[in-house]
Design a protein that fits this description.
- The protein contains 5 helices and no strands.
- It is mainly α.
- The chain has 2 domains: about 55 residues, no CATH class; about 80 residues.
């Protein structure tokens, strides 16, 4: 476009700076000019921070803390590191306690599973016994009916014989 309009590099640069100013990106142009060789690193840093869920503000704070000319920042980092190590130790202790509880709970579960198995087996045995009892009662009922019919038949024969005399 600049070639077609026969604009000089200076004019194009001025138009570009004006464009950035209109877009509210004037400082971007300044930063770009000052740090153009570092742009790939800055972009990589921003990308990594985004992946880790770290804001740009947090990156700036972190950079201030790790500045080797800032002993207060380094001391603060050391304290934070110690605090995090302490937290990790506590978490490790809690993890071991939870694992112990989990082991106990698994053993207890196994005990209840075995008890349940025994109860189910006992239930099946009792159901079988109940079924045998029902069948026995049915046989006895049928036998009783048969005996009642025989009695009725004998009673009838006796009545007929008694009446014939």
């Amino acid at each position: 476009m600049a070639i077609e309009l026969k604009l000089s590099e200076e004019e194009v640069t001025q138009f570009y700076k004006g464009f950035l100013k209109l877009k509210g990106l004037y400082k971007f142009g300044i930063v770009y000019e000052e740090h153009k060789g570092h742009i790939p690193y800055l972009l990589k840093l921003c990308s990594e921070a985004k992946k880790e869920g770290i804001s740009i503000g947090q990156l700036v704070k972190l950079a201030k803390l790790v500045d080797e000319n800032n002993p207060v920042g380094l001391s603060q980092l050391g304290k934070q590191r110690q605090w995090h190590l302490s937290e990790l130790r506590e978490m490790e202790t809690e993890k071991r306690e939870i694992e112990t509880q989990l082991h106990r709970m698994k053993a207890e579960k196994e005990k209840y599973v075995n008890e349940l198995f025994l109860l189910k087996s006992e239930k099946l045995t009792l159901e079988d016994q109940l079924e045998d009892y029902r069948k026995s009662r049915e046989r006895e009922r049928l036998e009783l009916e048969k005996l009642k019919k025989e009695k009725e038949s004998i009673d009838e024969s006796l009545r007929i014989g008694h009446n014939a005399e």
